[in-house]
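Could you show me some protein's one-letter sequence and the numbers that encode its backbone in two labelled lines?

___
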Amino acid sequence: MKKLLFSVFGLMMATGAAHAVCPVCTVAVGAGLEGARLLGVDDVITGIWAGGLTLSLFFWTAGWLKKRGVNSLLWQIVVPFVVCYGLLAMVYMMPSVEYGVHTLWGIDKFLLGTIVGTFAFYFGARWYMKIKRANGGHAKFAFQKVVVPLSFLMVATVVFWFITK
């Protein structure tokens, strides 16, 4: 299963960059997820970063498709969204993962974290675009494209760390 996920991810990395969201950060977050679970990090925290990573991959894939002339809404948005989140859902198919055992507010912790992380990353990316538009199409500081969405994920992480304590 892990080989399949790494093969798909490797194939995506071998293609040209779409510059939608920083691919280096995407790889760094993805590499840290498994290590976090092994270190005993709560599933909701791991899910927050998995949701951010997955949305980043979605933006990256949608940008890559747009760059190659795919203008259909179905192929540019719906299919990458289903594929990216479908791959994330495969986490529950791993033998060591049990769905619904660890819950918070009646929702599986990893699923809750994924939802929160997806929204946090989305709002961070949208806020960066708003700042960029207000600044004449330029970032206000170097790596702002990375800092803003990741800061939203960090804030969500801290909030849920306090909630789960």
In short: The longest strand covers residues 103-104. Residues 52 and 121 are 5 Å apart (CA to CA). The two ends are 32 Å apart (CA to CA). The chain has one domain: 2-164.
